[in-house]
Amino acid sequence: MKRAVILASGNGSLAQAIIDDAQLSTQIVALISDRADALVLERARLSGISTHVIEMKSNRQVWDREILDCVNNLKPDLVISAGFMRILSPDFVRTFPTINSHPALLPLFPGAHAVRDALAAGVRETGTTIHWVDEGVDTGKIIRQVKVSILPGDNEVSLHERIKEVERGLIVAAIKEVLPTLESRHG
Ligand code: GAR
């Protein structure tokens, strides 16, 4: 069975959807968060998944090294960034096949405030994208995208919640799509 590591920073509803999918033929070997108070850590523990907290350091390179070493020890075939609000180092993304879920139709609205930026731009629709992580910010090859309409009266919270309803299914589908394409690196 292939091995996956989830990275997440906050609530963790995407991580929960991945953990809960009974048909996902991958072993979630660990969940890593950059925040000790993230609800997602509790979600993982309740599902019997081991957790690691790697908080950002004043020296960014120390953090880069720490997360790379931690993931390396977990020997994943796939890393899944599901609501992880940090940029991974070039070394990291060259070492581990990594996918990310983003709450906008990339290449539109990359970065940490995608939902807010879409509302501010006055577009009628936005969406969600699952993509490979490369050395840029939300620039990697797109795996799957789904559109979500922006409704009159939407605010950042209501729109983000509707996007996440779609995102949860999309990330699970994307994992199932990419897993068979990955060489098992660790038997
Ligand atoms: C998701 O919408 C995900 O796309 C976004 O954080 C949310 C996590 O929700 N990630 C980013 O914006 C990364 N740039 P969750 O904590 O309920 O899983």
Task: Describe what you observe in this structure.
The protein has 187 residues and is of the alpha/beta class. It has a single domain, classed as Rossmann fold, CATH 3.40.50. Helix content is 36%, strand content 22%. The chain has helices at residues 13-20, 39-46, 60-74, 90-95, 114-121, 156-178; strands at 2-7, 26-33, 51-53, 78-81, 98-102, 125-132, 142-149. It has a 7-stranded mixed sheet with strand order 3-2-1-4-5-6-7, with helices on both faces. Helix 1 (13-20) links the parallel strand 1 (2-7) and strand 2 (26-33). It is globular, with a radius of gyration of 16 Å. The chain starts with a strand and ends in a 9-residue tail after the last helix. The chain binds glycinamide ribonucleotide (GAR).
Could you give the distance between the termini?
8 Å
Computed structural class: alpha/beta
Q: Radius of gyration, rounded?
A: 16 Å
Unreliable spans are: none
> Can you identify the CATH class?
Alpha Beta
- Topology pattern, helix = H, strand = E: EHEHEHEHEHEEH
Number of helices: 6
- CATH H level: which superfamily? Formyl transferase, N-terminal domain
Question: Helix content range of the residues, please?
Answer: 25-40%
Strand order of the largest sheet: 3-2-1-4-5-6-7
Shape: globular
CATH third-tier fold name:
Rossmann fold
The biggest beta sheet reads: 7 strands, mixed
CATH architecture: 3-Layer(aba) Sandwich
Mean pLDDT: 97
Chemical compounds bound to the protein: glycinamide ribonucleotide
Strand content: 15-25%
> How many structural domains does the protein architecture include?
1
Number of strands: 7
Keywords: Purine biosynthesis, Transferase
Protein name: phosphoribosylglycinamide formyltransferase 1
Family: Belongs to the GART family.
Enzyme class: transferase
